[in-house]
Specification:
Oligomer: homodimer
Number of strands of chain A: 4
Radius of gyration of chain A: 17 Å
Structural class of chain A: alpha+beta
Helix content of chain A: 55-70%
Distance between the termini of chain A: 55 Å
CATH topology of the largest domain in chain A: Glutathione S-transferase Yfyf (Class Pi), Chain A, domain 2
Number of helices of chain A: 12
Largest interface: A-B, 22 and 21 residues
Chain lengths: 219, 219
Amino acid sequence: MAEEVVLLDFWPSMFGVRVRIVLVEKGIEYEYREEDLRNKSSLLLQMNPVHKQIPVLIQNGKPVCESSIIVQYIDEVWHDKAPLLPSDPYQRAQARFWVDFIDKKLYNPSRRIWSTKGEELEAAKKEFIEVLKVLEEQLKDKPFFGGETFGYVDVCLIGYYCWFYAYETFGNFSIEAECPQIIAWAKRCTQKESVSKSLPDGKKVFGFVQELRKKFVVD
Amino acid sequence: MAEEVVLLDFWPSMFGVRVRIVLVEKGIEYEYREEDLRNKSSLLLQMNPVHKQIPVLIQNGKPVCESSIIVQYIDEVWHDKAPLLPSDPYQRAQARFWVDFIDKKLYNPSRRIWSTKGEELEAAKKEFIEVLKVLEEQLKDKPFFGGETFGYVDVCLIGYYCWFYAYETFGNFSIEAECPQIIAWAKRCTQKESVSKSLPDGKKVFGFVQELRKKFVVD
């Protein structure tokens, strides 16, 4: 059966980026449908009635939701090309642990960097850097989180990279000064075509955040 | 090689219950080590330095952390007996979606039921019931979340059941009146020896919560 694959997404989403990268890695043809999050499509509401969020992968009419679950699903179904999760169960559990860590710990402070100011902003920056330093300690001197090849943890973290310029500008700090190995890792990731093709431009994200920020912060 | 399996746990934990159930389901012999969460063991801090939380499964000296990841890990390593995740990748993604939903949506309101009062308590009860109703709608008239057999979603939800008596008593409401099918499902689960052996007694949990509550609520 010919596969019909549709991705409901929103261009600056670090979660959507995960799915876009994996679809390129696996060589899967798909239709990209941009969502207007202020006016969500009936298809999005129908395909993800619980969370009503992007990204949603629709394969032959059947939805898969939540980006880290979508990535695992794609890796399991299209398992012959560019495997992302380790084949060893223990290493797989460790990869899941770090993706879970990213999902639980990184989003909240990263959001507060551009949506708060003063003491709240300082606390957000501190927390954000602490989380990145834990990840840096985990990366050590390996090229990628899983070792020699680009994998599940890399896919799930790299989407944040296109937001770094916005974080640094609104937070007035340098992520590279704090976490040089994370930046070296991110640059290594962007040498992959699947990543460079899927990551939005940092300045474009900055422009988007600048607009969004008007709702939260009065400069 | 003989497997040496140790579980670091704390008896009322709905997350620890998940792992206890699966270890019984799979017929895995293990050593249970109760943690004092006010005075965590050096082993816990060493095995889970990131979150410093139970449960931790230690297999031949190597730790696996985060209950839903531990359950998947055990299911993958001991895959011949009592499979918990569906073998079909799409069904597996759906099971992961619902466990993720439980983890994101149920814990927070359930905690607020016994740790707040007044309007905050009423909001917590409303949210808790809404989440259970979404799950009930998903269960429909199936015996278990995955269909005919006890599986991943059941394992990850049933640990809350031993807290229901405490929620109902402190919240002054009946979960059964709101979600009768969830209660019927829970009773069905407790007919399994793996569940009845692993779930602490609801009145004992109530006693524990009563003590804990003194820190949060002045009656």
